[in-house]
Amino acid sequence: MFVSVFVLTACAGTPTPGGPSTDVPPGGSVDASAVPDGTSPGGTDAPPVVLPPTLDPNVCHNTPFEDITAASGITFVQHTTTQACMHDVMGSGGCLLDYDLDGDLDVYLLDKAPWPSRMYRNDGHGHFTDVTDTLHIGDIGPSQGCLAFDADGDGDEDVYITRNNGDKLYRNDRTGFIDVTEASGIVTHGVGSTAAAGDIDNDGDLDLFVGRMVDETTCPGGCTDLPQQCTPLPNVLFLNDGHGAFTDVTLARGINLTMPTLVVRFYDFDRDGALDIYVGNDLGSEAPYYPDQFWHNDGTGHFTDAAPRWGVDHDSQGRSGDTMGIAISDIDLDGAPDLASADDMTGDVMLYHCDAMLHCQMESSARGLDWSMDTFKWAVDLEDFDRDGWPDMLIVTGSYYDPVAELSQLYWNDRTGHFTLSDLHVSDPLAQPRSERSALYGDLDGDGLLDVVLTAVGEAPRVLRSRQRCGRGITVALDSLSAGASVRVSFDGHSLERQVVTSASYAGSGSPWLYFGIGTATHADVDVRWLDGRTAHLAGVSAEQVLHIPRPPRS
After folding, report:
1. How far is CA 196 from each of CA 11, 123, 212, 233, 445, rounded to the nearest angstrom?
2. 434 has which bridge partners?
3. Is 182 helix (H, G, I), strand (E, B) or coil?
4. For residue 523, what are the contacts with CB-CB under 8 A and spacing of at least 6?
């Protein structure tokens, strides 16, 4: 059984309601006295934590996922109108979000015009019902990327959709969704590819970065699958006024390059308390060359490109690659973040290993990723699928041209930051070739394991339920405005730090909750640090829990 625990944080010297007094240092903190084993905050008895049997890792690695699409109730099929236009062959993504605040993840899947996108409500057990028409969220694209984030700071998730005829922002009013694009001040054109949200100036609201690809009106005949024949569009950085109204501050904040962008990630790479922005661009391996950027935040919400300084803008041959997806995590638990960039089919996944001074080296081959070269790669993610404490890697594939089905690739981390391609059993869904694009991660059925929805071009998505019980885990859930907060989980002499992000690797967004494996450990320490400096500390947390940790009040 997986138990949800709502942690109560308090100011210094304030008793936790109904429970023991918790002395909280400046900034806000809480210790394990608020989260005793098998007890909810406030001393109320909760069901005991019952751990499932630990399985032989060699057995559960053979079939890590179960395809439950048919049983899930999700009947969506993604449509294409042509296989020659860029906005079709690049596919569509989706979002995982809890739109109705009932504690489980709902699924929103994007389609191409004239077919509407569809919203599916989760019953809490991984079975879904189409509620699109009831919620008035049947957006008619052509749509590509989806972002779920709290745009207006009211505690629920709104939906932003990147499209090739002007993006859309839908506000969640808890009875349905309302198109507030015009009222919000958001104006875009051309092929919108991706979006991410984060608080660039630490004023308590989520700002918005929109990645754009090209102006399709400049393409030969107005339609091509060769983006290098078209004119790139500038990306847009929107500043939030705290109530969901946005102002374009792109040039004023130093974002001054025009690139064909496919993926964006807010991440405090140097851990200075200010969110940086990674921008992954297509066409980095051929003239005129569009390298990736890593926009460093100076602490005031102004940016300069630090990718050359950190060494994440090129490999040893000077090429940046054609970036489709990115992932950031600490692959060897040395305390420094590492970065993986999904190239198309011209090279390996570009894996940059970084030291404590953020000197990064491309080490794909040395880390075991040679097998990734011969596939067209889209989403790449670093998640601990076997829950041993070390991030593994899943690469979602599918040829851009035609499109042709390919095998996605799952790599196991050997607990040193080196990867081995999984020898999947023929019955595993990942052993079935598809032309897939986006990977949306979250616990769909409430069992504490990390499931994934994979979107595909011209066919149904796959809903894959995790079967992994190789180790124990802890899930950390923060509030809707906590993008960029860092969470460190320490167990058995090891620790992994991750950050809350809003955007998925390619064309979508998954759950903002953080899923940590702790191997065979039964307890772990959890430390949270928000961008504004407030902290929470929980010592001796028992495994198999979802920790709902609110931001402590200022002292």
Report:
1. 32, 28, 12, 17, 26
2. 406
3. helix
4. 491, 540, 541, 542, 543
Paired tokens of 286: 């051929």
Strands 545-548 and 472-477: parallel
The number of residues in the chain equals 555
Torsional class of 526: left (φ above 0), alpha (ψ -120 to 50), beta (otherwise): beta
Rounded CA-CA distance 170/345 in Å is 35
DSSP 8-class letter at 307:
H
DSSP per-residue codes, 187-209: ---S-EEEEEEE-SS-SSS-EEE
Cβ contacts of residue 426 below 8 Å, gap of 6+? none
Q: How far apart are CA 278 and CA 219, in angstroms?
A: 27
- Any idea what DSSP says for residue 135? H
Positive or negative: CA dihedral 344, 347, 348, 349? negative
At which residue do the structure tokens 């069992």 appear? Answer: 447
Question: Helices (H), strands (E): how many in the chain?
Answer: 6, 39
Using DSSP bridges, classify how beta strands 207-212 and 168-172 pair: parallel, antiparallel or unpaired.
unpaired
Q: Which residue has the tokens 């090279």?
A: 347
User: What is d(CA 198, CA 279) in angstroms, rounded to the nearest whole number?
Assistant: 14
Q: Is this structure's pTM higher than 0.85?
A: yes
Q: Give per-residue burial for 361-392: e unless 16+ CB within 10 Å, then b.
A: ebbbeebbbeebeebbbbbbbbbbbbbbbbbb
Instruction: Give the angle 343-111-455 at the CA atoms, nearest 5°.
Output: 45
Q: What is the residue-level pLDDT of the chain in tens, covering all 555 positions?
A: 667 777 765 443 332 322 222 333 333 444 433 443 433 333 333 333 333 444 444 456 667 899 999 999 999 999 987 666 777 888 899 999 999 999 999 999 999 989 999 999 999 999 999 999 999 999 998 899 999 999 999 999 999 999 988 999 999 999 999 999 999 999 998 888 999 999 999 999 999 999 998 888 888 877 777 788 888 999 999 999 999 999 999 999 999 989 999 999 999 999 999 999 999 998 766 666 788 999 999 999 999 999 999 999 877 676 777 899 999 999 999 999 999 999 776 667 899 999 999 999 999 999 999 876 678 899 999 999 999 999 999 999 988 767 688 999 999 999 999 999 998 888 889 999 999 999 999 999 999 999 999 999 989 999 999 988 789 999 999 988 999 999 999 999 999 999 999 987 899 999 999 999 999 999 999 999 999 999 999 999 999 999 999 988 876
Q: Which two tokens stand for residue 139?
A: 């957006």
Q: Which residues of 320-353 are buried (b: 16+ CB within 10 A; e: fewer)?
A: bbbbbbbbbbbbbbeebbbbbbbbbbebbbbbbb
* Under 8 Å between Cβ of 278 and 262: no
